[in-house]
Amino acid sequence: MSEDAKVLRLSITDVCPLNCPFCYASKSNRTLKKDVIKEIIREAFDDGYMHVAIGGGEPLCVLPELTEAIEVAKHFGMNVAITTSGFGLTKEKLKHLKKCGVDIIHLSLGAYRENNIEAYRLLTQHEVRFGINLLISQKLIAKLIAILKRFEEDGAHQVTILLPKMGAPRLSIDAFINYLEKLKIIENEIKSMQVYIDCLTNRILTGKCYPQGCSFFTDLTVSRCAFGAPKAKWNGILTKAVDEANRAFSDCLLVKTSERIK
């Protein structure tokens, strides 16, 4: 994906059976209605968006709404990605998602729960394009290269390495420096799998945000990104809400590095 690609990050639900302490998503039980999903995706397409990243909450908990989002986006010829914890993923659901036309499924790994392991097994054993969102920790950094090589061997298309956010254990300065050194090695060690860094790491290293686009939440608000503040209310015109959110945007909430690295 090019740096100037516009991505609609669509949170279709806040429902999630897990209770990860580091999750930044809303704790409500809201789920977007199908007519709202359809309208938002149509507006995004009309405004030049060609990528939809569907998340939550846990989108697999609301399969009818997830199906609607995928099918509407594919109707417009858009690229569709799903981010899931893997909770509730079965062989039947995986076949259903493939039939709907999902382009890639991102599995979030951090707390190695049983559902993570089973979902990972399903993704590696079936012909589906998948990626990993890997939450980094001080313990994980030491074996990061080996972990990435395992993902590569198992057929992962890409891995996005995530720094800990609010609520997650912080990295020490030494651990963060060690992580940056590992990033230099990865380029030479990992050949057939794309490895990305998250927004926070990219901001620290380059001072830039990526990619362009907006995040749409279940409370019908829009923000420049999943962590941007403040949000703007959507009143039926996506471009207007995005412009309002961008005008009010001062800085990403993630770029409080002193809170995440001690």
Commentary on this structure:
The protein has 262 residues and is an alpha/beta fold. It has one domain: TIM Barrel (Alpha-Beta Barrel), CATH 3.20.20.70. The chain contains 10 helices and 10 strands. It has a 10-stranded mixed beta sheet. Helix 1 (34-46) packs parallel to helix 2 (63-75). The longest helix is centred in the last third of the chain and has 17 residues, at 173-189.
Write a brief structural summary.
Helices cover 39% and strands 18% of the residues. It has 10 helices and 10 strands.
| Fourth-tier CATH superfamily name | Aldolase class I
Report the radius of gyration as a whole number of Å. 18 Å
Total helical elements: 10
Which percent bin holds the helix content? 25-40%
What are the SSEs and their pairings?
Blueprint: E1 6-11, H1 34-46, E2 51-55, H2 63-75, E3 79-84, H3 91-100, E4 104-109, H4 114-125, E5 130-135, H5 138-141, H6 144-153, E6 158-162, H7 173-189, E7 194-197, H8 199-206, E8 212-216, E9 221-223, E10 232-233, H9 238-248, H10 257-260
Parallel strand pairs: 1-2, 1-8, 2-3, 3-4, 4-5, 5-6, 6-7
Antiparallel strand pairs: 8-9, 9-10
Helix pairs in contact: 1-2
List keywords for this structure.
disordered C terminus; ten-stranded mixed beta sheet; globular; TIM Barrel; alpha/beta; single chain; 262 residues
